[in-house]
Design goal:
alpha+beta; 3 helices; about 50% helix; globular
Length: about 100
């Protein structure tokens, strides 16, 4: 089982999709039960993005598309820290 499959098994209610977005700042996003991961990012980024988006799925219910909104910045910062914790819990690897 791949590392990404381990994450998918933790969230059977989610559908994980690989998409190609030619923007180096785009890593992924979640819409409802669909998680989109940019396949043009490095493999390790796929795992971190998948976990980051599961944090949003678990805890955020509002629109976070405005990256300049304070609420969005707070949610993104917290999701980044929580996804790092989940990464260490699942894989025990240093980032």
């Amino acid at each position: 089982m791949s590392d990404l499959e381990r994450i998918e098994n933790e969230y059977p209610e989610l559908n994980f999709w690989g998409i190609e977005v030619k923007n180096p700042k785009y890593h992924g996003h979640v819409e409802g039960n669909d998680v989109y991961i940019n396949l043009l990012q490095p493999d390790i980024d796929w795992l971190k993005t998948a976990l980051h988006e599961t944090v949003h799925y678990d805890f955020d219910s509002s629109n976070l598309s405005n990256q300049e909104d304070r609420k969005t910045m707070i949610a993104e910062g917290w999701a980044r820290k929580e996804s790092e914790r989940r990464y260490m819990e699942l894989f025990g690897k240093a980032n």
